[in-house]
Design brief:
The protein is an alpha/beta fold. It has twelve helices and eight strands. α5 (about 105-120) packs across α7. The mean pLDDT is about 95. Bound molecules: 2-phosphoglycolic acid. The site of 2-phosphoglycolic acid has 13 residues, from β8.
Length: about 260
């Protein structure tokens, strides 16, 4: 059976509870129920509870943008995966903005991935090289290290449920994604790492997304890349028309593969 495609809206630190609810209603008007595309909304923590009561579950699933790796205790300001349990289906882990602005090391990302899985939440693990690493031709090494360390506490059964997003840091937040050739190379390499560690069956079941300047006009090119199962969308997900067009584009690309 074909894996359902996924489109994730990473709203980052944008929108208050009211604005998030408004955008969700606009999206609900524009997005159909697709059997082949899962649409996942990742608002800030504050919005998760109210949105969980508002969303049409045939259309949307929720994701947290992060979570803390210890389940409970004296960790002021943190929200644990155990507190997010039953509220979200997915959690984004290891986004480059977390690695960069919040100093998340490979070990912290690994512990977060493990904690998400332990609490029944599917991690969307983000990996990708910076511009400097790309210029130094270190992309393969960086992806290798990020993947091998993040998955190191998991079994093959855990990994096959997971989602990994290839997000080259240099392509985030602009209007030009990586080229399909670049994406293909990185995704092949990333899938190869997983198959070396867990075998081909696990690698086949795992879903891989691309993120970084996803805008409607680029969807068919990116989704045409072998091994890409969906998109992790940042700024374009804050615009109802653009995001609905992206979801529609992923659906059309999925139909054309049948
Ligand atoms: P962007 O962000 O679509 O704004 O490039 C993607 C991301 O950071 O997940």
């Amino acid at each position: 059976m074909k894996k359902p495609r996924i489109v994730v809206a990473n709203w980052k630190m944008n929108l208050d509870v009211h604005q998030a609810s408004l955008l969700t209603h606009k999206l609900a008007d524009r997005i159909h129920v697709y059997r082949d595309v899962e649409v996942v909304l990742a608002p800030n923590y504050l919005c998760l509870q109210p949105l969980s009561m508002e969303i049409d579950r045939r259309k949307f699933r929720l994701a947290a943008q992060d979570g803390y790796f210890i389940d409970e205790g004296s960790y002021t300001g943190a929200v644990s995966f155990s507190q997010l349990r039953n509220l979200v289906h997915y959690a984004i882990v290891g986004h480059s903005e977390r690695r960069r602005y919040f100093s998340e090391s490979l070990e912290i990302v690994r512990d977060k991935v493990t904690a998400a899985v332990r609490n029944g939440i599917v991690p969307i693990l983000c990996v990708g090289e910076t511009r400097e690493e790309r210029n130094l031709k270190e992309t393969r090494q960086v992806l290798h290290d990020q993947i091998v360390s993040a998955l190191s506490d998991l079994t093959g059964e855990d990994v096959e449920q997971m989602v990994i997003a290839y997000e080259p840091v240099w392509a985030i937040g602009g209007h030009a994604p990586a080229t399909p050739e670049d994406i293909e190379q990185a995704v092949n390499w990333l899938r190869y790492q997983v198959s070396e560690l867990y075998g081909e069956k696990v690698e086949n079941r795992l879903r891989v997304l691309y993120g970084g300047s996803d805008e409607p006009e680029f969807v068919s090119g990116i989704m045409g890349v072998e091994g890409v199962d969906g998109l992790l969308v940042g700024h374009a997900s804050l615009n109802a028309e653009q995001f609905a067009d992206i979801v529609e584009g992923v659906h059309i690309a999925s139909l054309s593969e049948d």
